[in-house]
Amino acid sequence: MPNPSLNPNLKDFWMTRVLPDGTPVTMRTLHGGRMSSKSHDAAGMAIARANHHKEIFLCTRMYQNKIEDSVYTLLKDKIAYFGLQDNFRILANSIEHKTNGSMFKFYGIARNIDEIKSFEGATVWWNEESQNLTKKMFTTIRPTIMRNEGAEMWFTLNGQLISDYSWQRLVESPPKGALVRKINYDENPFLGESALRDIDEEFNEDEELANHVYNGVPYADDDQSIIKRSWVNACIDAHINLELDLFGATTAGYDVADSGADRNCVTVFNGAVAITMDAWKAGEDELERSSLRAYKLADGGLLSYDSIGVGAGVGSILKGKGYNNYSKFNAAAEVFNPKKEYSPKITNKAKFENLKAQAWRDVADRMRNTFNAVTKGMTYDPSELISISGDIKGLEELKSELCAPRADYSKRGLDIVEAKKEVKKRLEKSHDLADSFIMGACPHLVKGKRGALNIYG
Known about the structure:
By secondary structure, the protein is an alpha/beta fold. The protein has two domains: about 10-205, P-loop containing nucleotide triphosphate hydrolases (Rossmann fold), CATH 3.40.50; about 230-450, Nucleotidyltransferase, domain 5. The protein is built from 17 helices and 20 strands.
């Protein structure tokens, strides 16, 4: 079959059937900026395949209030472009091949996921504007498609945030069998001089925005996030990059879980350097085993544990075993040192609604300092910096979790951290690693057996 792609630069992307390691291609991700021909090429390939042999296309996007919201119009245009009007029947809500049984059906995932889940016989799932795809959508529809031998998943997207599930799953860490290709306007041979001039002007006006829009560069930072991803990235091995001794007393944060979907998570710090993390799921009535495991990970240092909910019993368990180097972290408690000024003429009590908000902001401030030190050469007292060992297992997951919670305000107008259930909706999981990190990084905000602990000994 001749190459049907409108853009010759994408020939290999569409025609490759087997990856270099011998794995059959089961997923194709085409990402990049505007005017890159992504959707046009996917539509062109789809029509060419459907004309050549029987294919059942499930065409989706997040929302589809009317058929015009889908790729329906693009597919009609490609039928006309290839001169195949006599081969296809274009109906009000579907497109069918007149002789070989090929078919295109269109759905909005947000309102039709149960119907899509029971869709039979699809050979290709094409999801347009996949930057909106969530974990639930992907994990629900994927089995529906992949139960059919030889089926493929196609995703076209303009990445929004590096932390988005869609970017992480479809671009950064795709499943086995995935072919991922970035394409931008500079590989589109059909753009006219007027369009190119307009793009150049936008780069001159706002390079960061133009890189996002036309070069498909996802934003590293969510402006609403308490902790910016660029700050976290700067913290990776910052103690090495800055050639500073940030080591000191050992402390650990323990986010407690029992049975269920959430995990027990521990982050261990040596001074201001996060050196290791551990996460595990526990069965029912395994709180004692998990508590002892967490205490052992603290390796003689202070263990700060989440004392709300299931964690309320950790202290009595450790006390019963004769241990005493632990402290409660009650996220809803009053702020530490309420009368101390957070900033000129603003006390901690006048700034933060609770200890959780104070701790997240404390870590955010130190990470911002680290970013400034690494990228701008600014100097700070070592106690005002944070470093994260690049050897930590699960580092990318930690980054995403730390950057997920957004700043919010209480009814009294004080700083709070976005509700956990709201963060969970976006991540589709608990940010339990991040919570353990925050507790481990803030022993100076809790009372241990010696009062507030100096992380530098």
